[in-house]
Amino acid sequence: MIGWLKGELLEKHAPELLINVNGVGYEVLAPMTTFFALPDAGMVELHTHFVVREDAQQLYGFASKDERRLFRTLIKVNGVGPKLALAILSSMDAPGFVACVQHDDVQALVKIPGVGKKTAERLLVEMRDRLKDWFMEGDATLAPTASVAPAQNMAITEAESALVALGYKPQDATKMVMAVAGDDSDRAEDLIKAALKRMK
Predict the structure, then answer these.
(1) Recorded GO terms, molecular function (predicted)?
(2) Where is pLDDT greater, at 107 or 187?
(3) N or C: which end of the chain has fewer CB within 10 A?
(4) What distance in Å separates the CA atoms of residue 113 and residue 85, rounded to the nearest whole number?
């Protein structure tokens, strides 16, 4: 089991990261909350979860132990795999999800790609008992989001690809990105942030 990585961040292409750890390049999938918290380059540290399946091996990385803890709890829910758990944590941070469960906020959950009403209701029921110890940690807040961003073709393309990778349909990803494209930046990260914020 690979539980933690410390190395040089070589590439960021949401939601994938490439990290050089002593000459070995680790490909890591990260939720957008973690992705936005990392610098564009330099040394980074991630708490990780390694998933081994018959057809693939994938490493998931998180900026905090709480994010990883919630990811591990989510994938124990019937019908929720790593991809859906990643989409959930990309749409809201750990305290934000805990707040949804605490307040039975089905509407916030069904906005997440791959989460229908039945899945949302199952998440609320199954996660309520598993997250009891989180409810005493104070008011939860949604993940910080950035201002509306760029309209550069390359940034738009990268942002759309990232949203598709998170489970959104291509046509929906295009609509989301174009709805927030502005003149303030030329970074794909800003577009993704703004698009996800708009979905809340």
Answers:
(1) ATP binding; four-way junction DNA binding; four-way junction helicase activity; hydrolase activity
(2) 107
(3) N
(4) 11
